[in-house]
Amino acid sequence: MVQINQVWNHHIIEGLVPVGKNKLDASEYVNDAENFVVKTNQSFVNMLISGITFGIYTPTQTKFYIPLRDMQVPVQNGKIKSDQ
Predict the structure, then answer these.
(1) Residue 26, SS3?
(2) 3-state SS class at 2
(3) Average pLDDT, the chain
(4) 27 phi, psi to nearest 5 deg
(5) b or e along 34-67 (b: 16 or more beta carbons within 10 Å of the residue's beta carbon)?
(6) pLDDT surpasses 50 at 48
(7) Spatial distance between the Cα atoms of 41 and 80, rounded to a whole number of angstroms
(8) Is the confidence at residue 83, as pLDDT, over 50?
(9) How far apart are CA 80 and CA 84, in angstroms?
(10) CB neighbour burial string for 4-23, b if at least 16 within 10 angstroms, e if fewer
(11) Looking at residue 75, what is its pLDDT?
(12) pLDDT band at 81, cuts 50/70/90?
């Protein structure tokens, strides 16, 4: 699996109240790929920000992954560039 995109989700009051765009359309982030994985979690930076604001602002991050075989970019020298 290769991570192809990442987006932050904004919440307040320990994640109880979503702020802004709270429903993500995965097709916008995976370029209409048929097979993909979506992972939502809190990174260290997200937890640090949540701690600094005493839980008033609680961000999370959503990462989008697709299988390596579904990559639509040409392979150069047998390697595919990714952010991971």
Answers:
(1) helix
(2) strand
(3) 81
(4) -60, -25
(5) eebeeeeebeeebeeebeeeeeebbbbebbbbbe
(6) yes
(7) 26
(8) no
(9) 11
(10) bbeeebebeeebeeeeeeee
(11) 46
(12) very low
Q: What are 13's strand-pairing partners?
A: none
Would you state the structure tokens that stand for residue 40, as one six-digit string?
A: 């939502």
Q: Which amino acid is at 10?
A: H
Q: Look-up: residue for tokens 């932050």?
A: 8
What integer is the mean pLDDT of 27-56?
89
Assigned token pair, 52: 């600094």
* Residue 2 CA: distances (Å) to CA of 29, 31, 67, 78: 13, 13, 6, 15
Ranges assigned E (strand) in 1-84:
2-12, 17-19, 37-41, 60-66
For residue 28, the 8-state DSSP code is H
- Torsion-angle region of 45 (φ positive above 0: left; ψ -120 to 50: alpha; else: beta): alpha
- For residue 64, give both structure tokens: 């989008």
